[in-house]
Amino acid sequence: MIEDKNTEKTDLSALGEFGLIEHLTRNLTIKQTSTIKGIGDDAAVLEPGEKKIVVTTDLLVEGVHFDLSYMPLKHLGYKSVIVNLSDVYAMNANATQITVSIAVSNRFPLEALEELYAGIETAAAIYGIDVIGGDTTSSTKGLLISVTAIGEVKTEKITYRNGAKPNDLLVVTGDIGAAYLGLQVLEREKEVFKVNPNNQPDLDAYTYIIERQLKPEARKDIVKLLEDLDVIPTSMIDISDGLSSEILHLCKASNVGCDLYENKLPLDPQVISTAEEFNMDSTTIALSGGEDYELLMTISQDDFPKIKANPNLTVIGFITEESLGAHLVTRAETKIPLQAQGWKNFEN
Amino acid sequence: MIEDKNTEKTDLSALGEFGLIEHLTRNLTIKQTSTIKGIGDDAAVLEPGEKKIVVTTDLLVEGVHFDLSYMPLKHLGYKSVIVNLSDVYAMNANATQITVSIAVSNRFPLEALEELYAGIETAAAIYGIDVIGGDTTSSTKGLLISVTAIGEVKTEKITYRNGAKPNDLLVVTGDIGAAYLGLQVLEREKEVFKVNPNNQPDLDAYTYIIERQLKPEARKDIVKLLEDLDVIPTSMIDISDGLSSEILHLCKASNVGCDLYENKLPLDPQVISTAEEFNMDSTTIALSGGEDYELLMTISQDDFPKIKANPNLTVIGFITEESLGAHLVTRAETKIPLQAQGWKNFEN
Q: Which family does the record claim for this protein (chains A, B) (predicted)?
């Protein structure tokens, strides 16, 4: 399913390391006032002023985190930025800069790296961040992308994982479970393609969930929304693994328990219909799916009037004393302990 | 030549991602006052105050940048930090924090990663920096380490590559060429080992050059020395590739030329004797070897009295007008144009 319009193939060795970096970064412009010096010296130089800065990093590995047989390189570049920005926004900070390092085997021509960089540049442009550095090197096998993201935040707005208090509301942005189901559809089509390469898949019924997998967005808008609503969450975390795993991280860091209501989980209609088609339980998918890059936060009851009418925010439960544990309250009103699922890469 | 004292082998899947990160980072302590929050949230939080911060990143790939048949994992962890700190010091900045991301295949047991981390921790302790984040994930093949380093510097002290002016002195720290020759000795011993695994190599004559390859140091001391001497270089760059490649970077960035004197190149006696043994030209090695992690800088003539007696600093030439080009002045007093060698990984 990779769209390949390039007929030209340029060998990476034709450029060498410095030529390659210069070539790939030639279109980058500086947008942030805090970026004093970007690419081109031993290090980039930043001036955050009185704000605090946040730093986060993530590694994406071919064959582990992505499959190039259905992930176009441009989307991959875009997604590699998004997963890092999501961590910055989860601190209630504004993302300002990234560095991007790429290890790539000789099987990739220059044009493939240009596609990847086009996705990175698109994300940088849309989210208003500067690409200030990086490294491009060869690998013995496959493609690997390492991104470090930097953001700025006023001290009083920083939101950690450990600030949740009993009676706080548990709130999630957007909807969840779609990215995981999108991946199931793509995996199924890959198997179909292996059997019949001429088959033209009809994916109209899955456009939303596939886009959530291939081109996720980070919730920059939520940081602004919270500012506009004059709400500082008591804690916040991004949902890169499944919801239950992230809730448990937050409860552990804050020394609290929680009650999560199954009937409050925000699910897109495509998630419900596709889960039925795959004979899967949509609640399980929402709890364990991962890769939604939504934000999970806790908000003081006092702030409820400010958020209650907002379509971006759904109250899905509330925080309890630690001794009460973390539970899912099912539609049948029974309580079952929340269990972490999610990341299991080393078991593959 | 890897020393393996571990008889226990723990499978990585026994811990999972979060358990693995917690396990590997359990001994880390925070030393820098600017580190507000280290590992354990969506992002680390820093408070650089009125200083500017510098950011640099480097990727080390097994089979490209290192060979585990003679590079012990602890040394590799140490070196992966050093190569990044060197870039920070090349900005005349103090290194303060790093993030470390590791992709590793299942063939490595937990104990191997512990060795790697022990080297990272040793470097962090010696150089007084905080490990504030990272990512540990599986790879389909081999080991890859991505480090991002952060430093702090007062605005007036930042030293870029582009400030060299005609008549400035070209100055290098320490001595050069040793790391490359150390690699040649290790490669030779690896071939001997393949033929006769019972051979006990006698490496006494090569201790310095092997240490320069396996356990390089970054010149933190030079940043302090320059402060003590009250000297701010007009430009600076670290020597990760060969000297000639770095001189050409500096000349290009500053729009200047230079005369470099062959008879001024600082060479260790082991470099001279080992180069003879390998029937190689020591000047070529000094110019093209790389991995020395020394600093190359230009200094105003006015500052010459401050540096002339210092054993850490060697004047190796001077800056000229751009139109005159960059040249090596040989012992025979002939001028030949400097050529970039160095990094050629994509050609392998």
A: Belongs to the thiamine-monophosphate kinase family.
Query: Shortest CB distance from B347 goes to which of A13, A18, A48?
Result: A13
How would you classify the pairing of strands B235-239 and B294-299? antiparallel
**CB burial class (10 A; 0-12, 13-18, 19+) of residue B260?**
buried
Model confidence pLDDT, tens digit, residues B113-156: 899 999 999 999 999 999 998 888 888 888 999 999 999 999 99
Contact between chains at B103 and A144 (C-beta distance less than 8 A): yes
Give the chain A residue whose CA is nearest to the CA of B48.
Answer: A52
For tokens 């490359």, name the residue: B180
d(CA B119, CA B124): 9
Q: What is the pLDDT of residue B17?
A: 65
Domain that holds residue B110: 12-155
**Residue B140 to residue A144, Cβ atoms within 8 A:** no
Q: Which chain B residues are closer than 8 Å to A99 by Cβ?
A: 55-57, 148
Q: Which residue has the tokens 């751009």?
A: B322
Q: Are residues A133 and A265 in the same domain?
A: no
- In angstroms, rounded to a whole number, what is the distance separating the alpha carbons of residues B224 and B233? 13
Q: Are residues A28 and A117 in the same domain?
A: yes
CATH of the domain at B293: 3.90.650.10
Q: For B33-42, write each residue's pLDDT tens digit.
A: 888 888 878 8
Residues A186, A103: one domain?
no
Residue B3 in any domain: the answer is no
Give the Cβ contact number of residue B332 at 10 Å. Answer: 6
Q: What is the pLDDT of residues B46-75, one digit of tens each?
A: 888 888 999 999 999 998 899 998 889 999
Task: Please give the Cα distance from B89 to B220 (Å, whole number).
Answer: 6
HSE, CB side, 13 Å, CA atoms: give it for residue A237: 25
Our count of domains for chain A comes to 2
> Distance between CA atoms of B311 and B304, rounded to whole angstroms?
13
Least confident of A219-228, A301-310, B13-22, B288-297: B13-22
Q: How is the beta sheet containing B294-299 ordered, strand by strand?
A: B235-239, B294-299, B169-173, B313-321, B256-261, B326-329, B335-337
Domain shared by B200 and B251, yes or no = yes
Question: What is the distance in angstroms between the Cα of B111 and the nearest Cα belonging to chain A?
Answer: 15
In a domain, B58, yes or no: yes
Q: Is B186 a member of any domain?
A: yes
Burial call B296-310: b when 16+ CB within 10 Å, e when fewer: bbbbbeebeebbeee
Do B202 and B138 fall within a single domain? Answer: no
> Domain ends where: A156, A190, A216?
A156
Q: Is B69 annotated among the ligand-binding residues?
A: no
Query: Do residue B113 and residue B184 come from a single domain?
Result: no
Asked if the structure places residue B91 within a domain, the reply is yes
Asked if residues A17 and B345 have their Cβ atoms less than 8 Å apart, the reply is: yes
Tell me if B87 is assigned to a ligand binding site: yes
Among chain B residues, the shortest Cα distance to A254 is held by B41
Residue ranges for the known binding site of A for Mg(2+) are 42, 56-58, 87, 135, 238, 241
Given an 8 Å threshold on Cβ–Cβ distance, is A344 in contact with B40?
A: no
Task: Name the closest residue on chain B to residue A83, using Cα atoms.
Answer: B42
> Helix, strand, or coil here: B150?
strand
In this structure, the answer to whether residues A17 and A56 fall within a common structural domain is yes
Cα–Cα distance for residue pair A133/B232, rounded to 1 Å: 24
Q: Are the beta carbons of A61 and B138 separated by less than 8 Å?
A: yes
Cross-chain residue pair A57–B99, CB shorter than 8 Å:
yes
Which CATH number is B80's domain given? Answer: 3.30.1330.10
